[in-house]
Design goal:
By secondary structure, the chain is α/β, with parallel strands linked by helices. It has helices at 61-68, 117-120, 187-192, 196-207, 223-234, 249-254, 271-278, 293-302, 345-357, 376-384, and strands at residues 21-27, 36-42, 49-58, 84-92, 104-107, 147-149, 154-155, 167-171, 175-177, 215-219, 239-243, 260-262, 285-288, 309-312, 334-337, 367-372, 390-394. Helices cover 22% and strands 22% of the residues. The longest helix has 13 residues, at 345-357. Keywords: Metal-binding, NAD, Oxidoreductase, Zinc.
């Protein structure tokens, strides 16, 4: 179990190695239906797979999108959602060398096999074998699941991780080893690095390469958007404009570096015009974190002519295409997408954790609630209502 500071005091025993485990999980049985916390069976890991005991997991808006079934192609039930967590290795399958029983690990939805052409390319953090794939619902090795109901019905996987379960099985390229947690980070903090914080800070650092003295606009002040702001603050941005329709978020945003706040509901002019007036023609960098194409257009037009860069982080489940005319790209603005903040998970996340441990990025403000897994539906409601950033769930 984990103590109040999120550090680990004991580890799973080897009694379960090679055997099935019965444990609690929150199972999705249909789009928008309340998750059911029940006993399930978790099967042993197969070749190049790892079974881990989840210590903490949290909820991201991507989990909510999948839970709602916003993209019909993603619908697969029953399914165990969740992709942001920290845990400890219970057992490993054949061929696994990078982790062993008892290691502290963070599961990552965008894996790194280290062998494919994309992994070997310094310009990309994609992986051809274990990259992010919201349509994937089974294990990479044999195309089957490692979860089942007590009655033997298969339960599908989600985003390479499925962390809303006391135990889960992941492909080894989708785990980052934190065997030596002398990084001054608790397990609670490590949980944040498996998605939201890494995605936002990495977008500011790796994708945009925000520079000191620059101006930034962040559209959507959820956990990812605030992580962008925190990353921009750490890089020395002089003006960080937060845009959100929830005025309560500005107080939290100020603590993470946001210098100005715009609520589109309070304005008569388009947001991009307001930002242009505030920044002498537009910001150096804008970040779209909402998954709304109309907001994306505002973000793009708020970037300065000639050099402004717009980074897309929001998950766009709608079939609507980019609201940008090709000729608008001839004004010198650029637009690019960012997955997992451009981080190569296995090879770069440990260094990022060390930076966080040294206080370069402040993590405490992202954890707003803690609840037991049995109250996961309450945690969903808090996030949907905009009342939480990250609610840590424990078993």
């Amino acid at each position: 179990m984990a103590n109040g500071n999120g550090s680990f005091k004991s580890k799973p025993t080897s009694d379960t190695k090679g055997k099935t485990i019965t444990c609690k999980a929150a199972v999705a049985y249909g789009p928008g239906e309340p998750l059911v916390v029940e006993e399930i069976i978790v099967h042993p890991p197969k070749k190049m797979e790892v079974r881990i005991k989840i210590i903490y997991t949290s909820i991201c808006h991507t989990d909510i999108s999948a839970w709602r079934g916003e993209n019909e192609a993603q619908r697969a039930y029953p399914r165990i959602l969740g992709h942001e967590a920290c845990g400890i290795v219970e057992s490993v399958g054949e061929g696994v060398r990078e982790v062993k029983e008892g290691d502290i690990v963070v599961p990552i939805f965008n894996g790194e096999c280290g062998e494919c052409r994309s992994c070997k390319c310094e310009k990309s953090n994609m992986c051809e074998r274990n990259g992010v794939n919201p349509m994937k619902k089974v294990m990479e090795g044999d195309g089957t699941t490692r979860f089942s109901t007590l009655q033997g019905k298969p339960i599908f996987h989600f985003l390479n991780t499925s962390t809303f379960s006391e135990y889960t099985v992941v492909d080894s390229p989708c785990l980052v080893n934190f065997l030596h947690p002398q990084l001054s980070l608790s397990l609670k903090h490590l949980t944040l690095l498996s998605c939201g914080v890494s995605t936002g800070v990495g977008a500011a650092w790796n994708t945009a390469n925000v520079h000191s003295g620059s101006s930034v606009a962040v559209f959507g002040l959820g956990a990812v958007g605030l992580a962008v702001a925190e990353g921009a603050r750490a890089r020395g941005a002089s003006k960080i404009i937060g845009v959100d329709i929830n005025p309560d978020k500005f107080i939290k945003a100020q603590a993470m570096g946001v210098t100005d706040f715009i609520n589109p509901k309070d304005e008569e002019k388009p947001v991009y015009e307001i930002i242009k007036n505030m920044t002498d023609g537009g910001v150096d960098y804008s970040f779209e974190c909402t998954g709304n194409v109309d907001v994306l257009r505002d973000a793009f037009l708020s970037a300065h002519l000639g050099w402004g860069l717009t980074v897309v982080l929001g998950i766009h489940a709608s079939p609507r295409l980019l609201p940008i005319h090709p000729m608008e790209l001839f004004d010198g603005r650029n637009i690019v997408g960012s997955v997992f903040g451009g981080f190569k998970g296995k090879s770069q996340l440990p260094h990022f954790a060390k930076q966080c441990g040294h206080g370069v990025v402040k993590l405490d403000n992202f954890i707003t609630h803690e609840l037991p897994l049995e109250e996961i539906n309450k945690a969903f409601d808090l996030l949907i209502a905009g009342k939480s950033l990250r609610c840590l769930l424990h078993f």
